[in-house]
Design goal:
By secondary structure, this protein is an all-alpha fold. The protein contains 3 helices and no strands.
């Protein structure tokens, strides 16, 4: 059973790492756009922002439904990153129980 289970766990951990990295890049890109450091009308910036928005917004939007309104402060990325770290820790502990 571990012949399929261990590689699947490793793949899920890697996907969670990449998704967490995408959330961080989206946060940084959004902040740079809001402060006017980068031009949001540039085609490359728009493409990257649009790609990251479509990648992260489904989960962030669901988290925002349950978050209270804090007057312009969006804590949903922090909640998402903490949830991803929690899930990743569970998967790592499962991986330790099934050595390859």
């Amino acid at each position: 059973m571990d012949i399929l289970f261990v590689p699947l766990l490793r793949l899920l951990i890697t996907v969670i790492n990449f998704y967490t990295f995408a959330v961080f890049i989206y946060i940084i890109l959004s902040l740079l756009e809001q402060f006017g450091v980068i031009n949001r009308y540039n085609q490359v910036v728009y493409f990257i922002h649009n790609f990251l928005f479509r990648l992260t917004e489904p989960l962030l939007g669901r988290i925002r439904l349950f978050m209270p309104n804090l007057g312009g402060i969006d804590l949903s990325p922090m909640v998402l990153v903490l949830a991803l770290y929690f899930i990743q820790d569970i998967l790592i502990r499962l991986l330790i129980k099934f050595p390859s």
